[in-house]
Amino acid sequence: MAMNEYHKGAGIKLNGVKVPHLVPGERLNMHTSGNVDNGFTDLESSILRWMAAGLNVPYEPFAKDYRNSSYSSSRASMLEGWRYFMGRRKIIAGRFASQLFSLVLEEALQRRELTLPRSATRGFYEAKGAWCNSDWIGSGRLAIDGLKEVKEAILRIESGLSTYEKELALMGEDYQEVFAQQVREMAERRVAGLPMASWVRAEKLAPGEQGEQPQVPIA
After folding, report:
1. Against a cut of 0.70, is the pTM above it?
2. Largest interatomic CA distance in the chain
């Protein structure tokens, strides 16, 4: 009680700030937290995982937590989420964009701003689904390891399992625009006197090497 009365009555201040003045033999015991999170990190991670599973999104990008993920697990998680996103894009965004495109094309035909080719065997309303058939390219897929992703795409194209159109669509690019840009860049580099790209030089050094058949001499 005496100590409490002393500290209540002690009014030692420095620039308006109270200074605790201890008596002889008295000391301050600073209390620190022995366990900072007390298991809160594991609880938070568990809640975020359940939320990600309920929303059909990968946990790693949802929680921005890649600490305990390897390349294989992160890529599997991202591909699983990408498959869900592509399905939603095709059903919702792609269908909506196709409907808008069909309306714009129909109005342009009615106003005579566009005309069907003379060789067309069916009119617009007879084959509306064929005339309005379209595929929409959205944002590209995230590459966790760019080198491995490129090698995989090259192997799929060379083995005939995929095409440039599909692989560039996964990157969010239109293959026709990419090809046209490559032609322009090669022409500009030729005019500027710059060396051609490595894959162009390799094709010039060994043209048709993979498709050539061995020549059998005829006796």
Report:
1. no
2. 123
